[in-house]
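Board notes, transcribed. Complex of a protein with adenosine-5'-triphosphate.
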Amino acid sequence: MTPLIEAKGLEFGPKAAPVLRDVSLRVDPGEIVTLVGPNGSGKSTLLRLMIGALAPRRGTVRRARGLRIGYVPQSLVLDPSLPITVRRFLDLPHRVGDAEAEAALAQSGADGIAHKQMAALSGGQFQRVLLARAVLNQPQLLILDEPTQGLDQPGQAAFYRRIAALRREMGCAVLMVSHELHVVMSASDRVICLNGHVCCEGTPEVVSAAPAYRELFGTGTGGQLALYRHEHDHAHEGGGAAHHHHHHHHAEG
Ligand SMILES: Nc1ncnc2c1ncn2[C@@H]1O[C@H](COP(=O)(O)OP(=O)(O)OP(=O)(O)O)[C@@H](O)[C@H]1O
């Protein structure tokens, strides 16, 4: 299958302290790929390289010709002293028709709030409006950076169900960052565990059984991310089913 987007050998950040090293990643049409990894492991940076907002020091990102990407950023701060309605927000940066705007809001579960002020939205509504803006151009690839930050658990579950529904309706692929491991594991076709480099990747079953993943996230955390920084390279105990990338930059004990 021709990938929608394919990154090869990405390096980013200072040579002495790279943020990303030798990261390769592809997304095929229609699949849901989730990036997991500790804080500061380069997940947002990788997404920004994929959309072309950042340039890698080395490596390439190839996008399918004419690829339409819808991007939902990790956070977006709007100046509350600048009033703007949901409807007008959807006109940024390009004006859209009323029918289009309404359809996107409905698809994103944000119907009926077009007249509201952005500053007056709840966290969940705000995320759905960001999603509506991302689906306006009928993207073939939706890129979401921790889209459920600040939502409670039911809100998160509902948001991911909506993403799955959008994928079915629009046939788009999804590349997202999530810290919600149990959601990731149930909602993804493929999981990529990042820690400056790709530690392991594969189906949720394969990744959750991989030693590298277990070392990063532990097994007894009840689906919550362990919030420690993974400073050393994991040991690659032999025989794991996951596709391991070997990058031993320093000695392991
Ligand atoms: N433009 C940049 N140039 C150099 N370093 C950067 C740049 N942007 C981010 N970084 C650094 O890259 C590292 C990874 O940041 P990034 O936001 O990608 O991590 P993350 O995995 O998304 O983290 P979190 O889970 O906390 O959101 C951080 O140490 C950050 O300071």
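Residues 13, 19, 37, 39-45 surround adenosine-5'-triphosphate (CB under 6 Å). The first strand starts at residue 5 and ends at 12.
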